[in-house]
Write a structure and sequence with these properties.
about 375 residues, alpha+beta, Jelly Rolls, Glutaredoxin, FAD/NAD(P)-binding domain, five-stranded antiparallel beta sheet, 17 strands, about 35% helix, binds flavin-adenine dinucleotide
Amino acid sequence: MANGLLEQRRAQMFPKLTSAQLARLERQGTRMQTQAGEILVELGAPPRGVFVVAAGSIEALAPPSVTQAASGYELLFLLSPGDFTGEMSTLRGTPALVRVRVREAGTVLLIDAEQLRRIVQNDAELSELFMRAFILRRMSVIESGHSEVLLLGSDHSADTLRLREFLTRNARPYVNIDIEHDADAQALLERFHVRGEDVPVVVCRGAELLKNPSNAEVAECLGINAPAADERVHDLLIIGAGPAGLLLSHLLHLRGIESVVLEARSRGEIESTIRAGVLEQGTMDLLNEAGLGARMQVEGAVHHGFELAFEGQRRRIALTELTGHSITVYAQHEVIKDLVAARVAADGALKFKGGSGTVTTIAHA
Ligand SMILES: Cc1cc2nc3c(=O)[nH]c(=O)nc-3n(C[C@H](O)[C@H](O)[C@H](O)COP(=O)(O)OP(=O)(O)OC[C@H]3O[C@@H](n4cnc5c(N)ncnc54)[C@H](O)[C@@H]3O)c2cc1C
């Protein structure tokens, strides 16, 4: 298909790999036979990596246009031997913007995401070639007007500006229609039975219609928060975000060891379950030493002793006098809140029930 950027920058956007470059990639990738019609990457799915065409051909297909009701997938690019697939989402691991389908059966070399990252780090020539091609291809998709997202809004609406910023920040191409200036907008509103007060409206993947959605709802629809978003490798897996698991995760972090904490309950549940209330000296010292005691020091009630009653007689146990230690009454769910906040602030990996992300692989050392 014709588009301005593609015409001007075809050579950089689709550089043919030289035999020397192909030989270097061959050492990293996996050869695969392909069948005509086989889908190598599905629109919206996490990219599998880069496919280098060795024989046959591959087509990159743009999604049905959100502005044309009856349109189907449209050919964006046709790749022949020496060409490779991929654009910016391939490196970031975010959902693919195009469908990649085999046109003529042949052979491809699959460079998976991890191998691609290694190549980008270690091979300056291929790194530059891939990066330039990926950026230009993303720009070309945006320029072509093919997008999974149609945003119907107004320059005067704060929510429209919020959604535009969100889509731009996440590098998601979108068709923007200003309902106050675009003659087609009224027809579109009628087509989707949208009332004025529902604007801004996001039409996602030509099907799902979201009325004044939150950023999280749009992210959910586009798969932006898909598990692939957190591809970090952690040294340790901790099961249970109780005080023990969270504190351990934090202490390890302070020593440079990163962990992922898996919790069967939601964050809201663990932060509201009433349990313990008394913290002994050792726990208080540990929380303070780990930099987690600020709120406890302000809100906790320090006690230097307690009373026991025997046959109507009250006996004071003078803790501090007897042991040099005190106790603090500070609810366990408040400690949990402080621990979760500290892990979140340190960009620690916490996986709660109902949250995004899963642990995909556990390697044996
Ligand atoms: C009523 C009550 C009062 C208490 N009062 C005090 C007190 O005053 N002072 C005091 O020091 N102690 C007190 N305790 C004890 C204190 O609450 C516990 O010692 C503390 O909760 C233990 O912490 P933990 O992290 O080991 O386990 P937990 O707090 O039990 O946390 C374990 C976490 O793991 C999660 N989990 C379990 N299985 C899985 C799984 N398979 N996958 C993913 N997640 C999982 C659970 O949902 C839970 O969130 C009290 C306990 C109770 C019940």
